Amino acid sequence: MSYLRKRGKKWYYTIEIGTGKDRKRVERAGGRTKAEAQAAFAAALAQYSTTGSLRTAAKITYKELACEWESTSLKASRPMTRRNYDSTLRNHILPAFGERLLPSIRPRDLQSFLNQKAEVSSTAVLGIIRAVLKRTFDYAVFAEYLTDTPMRGVKTPEGKPLGERRTFTPEEFHQLTDYLQCQRPELLLPVLIAYHTGARCGEILALTWDDLDTAARTLTINKTLLQDGTLEDRTKTKSGTRTITIGAALLRILKAARAQQAQDRLRYGRYYRDCGRICRRIDGSTLTQPYVRTVNKYCRDHFAPGLCFHSLRHTHATMLLEVGEDLELVSKRLGHAAISTTAKVYSHILETRQNAEREILDRTFL
Question: Using an 8 Å Cβ cutoff, are 287 and 279 in contact?
Answer without folding.
Answer: yes
